[in-house]
Specification:
The protein is an all-alpha fold. The chain has one domain (16-32, 42-284). The protein contains twelve helices and no strands. The chain is globular.
């Protein structure tokens, strides 16, 4: 009885932390949308502030904890940083050109792509149900985007690309975690993110004005808080259950987008979102490893 109560308590903490993480991630996109909607500041500048804030927070943490900065597997740490950086840039360009709702829905397709791509890394068979969930996701994507092939919204394409690249990032993260800690992996993500992001940002940099500084900082802080809550959550909840709870970001994004930006919540968009959520829940019950 005691062990069950303890497990239940830990699960609740994990769920609460994960819900807070997904709410923070959705909120970060809201502030990013405020910036790109009302100014010429590009998405690449928003991601720089996120990496910048995260870098100094992790430097502070590493100094306090006196963590060694030498990775055991340099290649995996660098590869994870490259994939994660690319996925984040695609995601914020998606926020710039499409709705908050669509950007988050399309980005959150990554768990399905993880379960389709992972078997090729570990030389395992793809389960039939995984193919079904992929088809369900593709149908959901079609309903969310509702493409007019004469003029496809580039933001929707960026959103889908962010989900696909994020899948590779998660797979490499799983491999890197076998050799290095989360702190080391995220620290190098933030460090390399500043360098890569800085070079890409310089040619298109736009000086923020007035409240835009607040929006940039708020987007960065919410993004970093989301990462902190996410890390805390997986101390108390397993990846399978966590994947199901993570789909809550679609709901948060849909409500925030609807009430703040009047994003359209048409029947096809709602149906597509439900299909994507259903696919995430489905694949979270499948095990490849």
């Amino acid at each position: 009885m005691y062990s069950f109560a303890l497990y239940s308590f830990m699960m609740q903490r994990g769920v609460i932390c994960l819900l807070l993480a997904e709410f923070c991630f959705a909120s970060a996109t809201v502030f990013a949308k405020f910036i790109t909607r009302d100014s010429d500041i590009p998405a690449i500048e928003i991601t720089f502030f996120r990496f910048f804030i995260g870098f100094f927070l992790f430097v502070y943490y590493i100094r306090i904890k006196k963590v060694s900065l030498r990775p055991n597997r340099w290649f995996l740490v660098i590869l994870r940083a490259a994939f994660s950086f690319t996925a984040l840039v695609f995601f914020f360009y998606s926020v710039q050109y499409t709705s908050v709702t669509n950007a988050n829905m399309l980005n959150m397709t990554y768990p399905v792509f993880v379960f389709m791509i992972a078997p090729f890394f570990w030389k395992q068979k793809i389960k039939t149900l995984a193919v079904f969930y992929l088809l369900l996701t593709i149908t959901g994507i079609y309903l969310v985007i509702q493409p007019d092939f004469s003029s496809i919204n580039p933001g929707d394409i960026y959103g889908l690309l962010s989900g696909i690249v994020a899948a590779f990032s998660i797979i490499v993260l799983s491999m890197a975690r076998e050799h290095d800690s989360t702190v080391i992996i995220v620290f190098y993500l933030m460090t390399l993110g500043i360098v890569f992001n800085g070079f890409l940002m310089l040619p298109v940099f736009v000086m923020p004005k007035g409240i835009q500084y607040l929006y940039l900082v708020a987007s960065g802080v919410f993004g970093v808080l989301g990462q902190v809550f996410l890390t805390m959550a997986y101390k108390y909840i397993n990846a399978k259950d966590g994947s199901m709870v993570s789909s809550s970001r679609i709901v948060f994004a849909a409500f925030l987008g609807f009430f703040i930006f009047s994003d359209a919540l048409t029947l096809p968009v709602i149906a597509g979102g439900l299909m994507i959520v259903g696919s995430i829940i489905g694949v979270s019950r499948l095990q490849y490893r």
